[in-house]
Amino acid sequence: MSLQVYKDLPQGSSEWLLARRGIVTASVIGQLITPSTLKVAKNAASRSKIAELASERISGRVEDTPISWQMERGNEEEERARDLYEAHFAPVEQVGFIVREVEGVPIGFSPDGLVQDNGFVEFKSRSPKIHVRHVLSGKVPPENLAQVMTGLFVTGREWCDYVSFSNGMAMWKTRVYPDQKWFDAIKQALLNAEEKIRRIVAEYEEEVLGLPVAEYIDPFEEVELIL
Question: Average pLDDT for residues 99-118, to the nearest whole number?
Answer without folding.
Answer: 96
